[in-house]
Amino acid sequence: MIQLSLIGIGTGNPDHVTLAGVKALQAADLILLPRKGEGKSDLVDLRRLLCRELLGREASGRESLNDMQRPRVVEFDLPERDNNTDYLAAVDDWHAAIADVWGELMGTWLPRGGRVAMLIWGDPSLYDSSLRIAGRLGEGGRQRQVEVKVVPGITSLQVLTAEHRIPLNALAEPVQITTGRRLRERGWPTDAASVAVMLDRGGAFETLPSEGIHIWWGAYLGMDKQCLIQGPLSEVGAAILQQRAALREQHGWIMDTYLLARRSY
């Protein structure tokens, strides 16, 4: 039996990891850290930092199966998604490839079972596919008996609203959480007074009539390079796009999110 703990670790600040997350990390036999290529090396560096601070020792991949230090930290290269086919089909194939890697690593490092931990940005329940991938570990040739445990984490939306010192929703009004892709395709969601946008590759808000909309934007939330901009969309939209492009050029990657509202908070 493998017990897989998906631990929400917030957005890069070690102080945002809950006590439950720390306990789950310390109780693990194996911690898996994904690498996403040189352009996003900061992401695995932050996970290494969390392991160092929360485990009280250096985090690095082990090269010997005889190394009995616990937890063992193993890094792996995350498969790349095919961007040249249908989006949903490409994501489905990508998830299957990731599940194959997870299953192989668990079989190699814990052939007799044990506790595995994975550090998930934000929370595993919000626009993250770790739970879907974990659900595929028993499919096909991945015959692994896996018990999944979720340790909640702080999301980027929570950090965004905290840093801007605003509530997520207007008084007695609904808020819809969506993606940049959906905002581009469908526009402003019906009956939503506020819209929180995640996974935007850049500038989906440009498709909206900007008058009467306020935006609260944040990049690298919770990290030391955090950047915030807020104001009427008609006045700050261009500045956000310019800043976003500059930050992406500087760091090689960017993670950002924003909240849009038709009325003042």
From TrEMBL:
Domain of life: Bacteria
InterPro entries: 4pyrrol_Mease (IPR000878), 4pyrrol_Methylase_sf (IPR035996), 4pyrrole_Mease_sub1 (IPR014777), 4pyrrole_Mease_sub2 (IPR014776), CobF (IPR012797)
Domain Tetrapyrrole methylase: 4-236
Pathway: Cofactor biosynthesis; adenosylcobalamin biosynthesis
Keywords for this protein: Cobalamin biosynthesis, Methyltransferase, S-adenosyl-L-methionine, Transferase
Coiled coil spans: none
UniProt record, GO biological process: cobalamin biosynthetic process; methylation
Entry annotated with the keyword Transport: no
Molecular functions per Gene Ontology: precorrin-6A synthase (deacetylating) activity
Pfam families from the UniProt entry: TP_methylase (PF00590)
Identification of the protein by name: Precorrin-6A synthase (Deacetylating)
Source organism (scientific name): Halomonas cupida
